[in-house]
Each structure stands twice: as structure tokens, then as C-alpha cells.
UniProtKB/TrEMBL annotation:
Residues 1-19 form the signal peptide. This is Uncharacterized protein. Residues 35-62 are annotated as: Disordered. Keywords: Signal.
Amino acid sequence: MRRSAATGAVALVAVILTAAVSGCGGSAAAGESPLHLPAADVPPAESGEAGMEESHERSGELTVLSSRITEAVGVEDFGQSWIEDGALHVAVTTEAAAATATEAGAIAHVVRFSEADLMEAARSVVAWTAAHRTATGGLGRITLDALGERIVVGVDPGRRDQVATAFDATVAGGVEVVFEATGGPAGTR
């Protein structure tokens, strides 16, 4: 079966969807700070069904907080956000953005690349792959890793070393690109 440029498009859509998970909308009620969600008002998750509901509620609140922080620091300074051990972590590119995130209740990490920088690097990798389809065999999932200051690209296990050797690192604009063996190119099974 001949792979088309659609395979690259599928991979890029996967990148966009992966990146979009870190921000979904929310707005503060009148009189509230648009960033603050008081962590002390939300009890730690308990076991059982009630604990699961509280955990889901807390995750939803942290997702809203992530969106508010993203809006406050701007896309040029936002790297990525994730929930770890019940706390919101936010990767940002400046100390000022880190202060904003910390003040809002998140754990801030200062990194070199914004999400926009990582997305641009991912688009460049997709374009390079399309131009070198014979060597690469196509891409699997692309994951943005702001904290690791890299993007991780899934490739066919039988071609991982070949792709890594052939890859022109200057394509990604200084962002580290790591190739991991996966189940194969996106869209094939």
C-alpha cells in the first residue's frame, strides 16, 4: 500500500491534539481572580466512588486553572501543563511567567521552548519526513515534551536507527528530536 501525504497530515493532527489537551476554557465569576482556584478548598481524593468523583472534580479545576494561566502568560511564554500527584505543573519560558503560574497555585518549571516553538519544530519534522519518505517510512505519534525540552517522534521499529541517522537536526531549530520505536506509522495497523 502506498502511503500518501495524508499520513503526515494525520501525524500533525495528532501533535495538535496532544498539545491542545493542556488547555481548555474557563472563566472566573464576577469578583474572583481569573487565576486563583484555592487548593485548600479542595480536599485530597479519597478511595472509593466518592474519592473518584472528587479526583475528577479536582482534575477539572486544575484544567481550568491551566487555561487561565495559559491566557495570563501568553502563548509565547507557555510551554505545557500536566497534573502530577494532584498538583498542576506548568512549563513556562520566563521567570515572570513562572511567578504568575506559582501565584495562581501551580508548580512552575522554566524551560527554553514554548509550546509554539515545539509545534513549529514538530511541523518541520513532519515536512522533513514527507521529503524523505523512502528513508523514514512515515511517522507515528509526535509528543511535545516541554519539560524535557524536546519532541519525541514514534517511528517504525525497523527504521528507528536509520531515521535517527538520516535526520537533519537543524530542521527542528534547536529543539532536540528523539526517535522512539513504536508500532509503525500513523494510520496503519
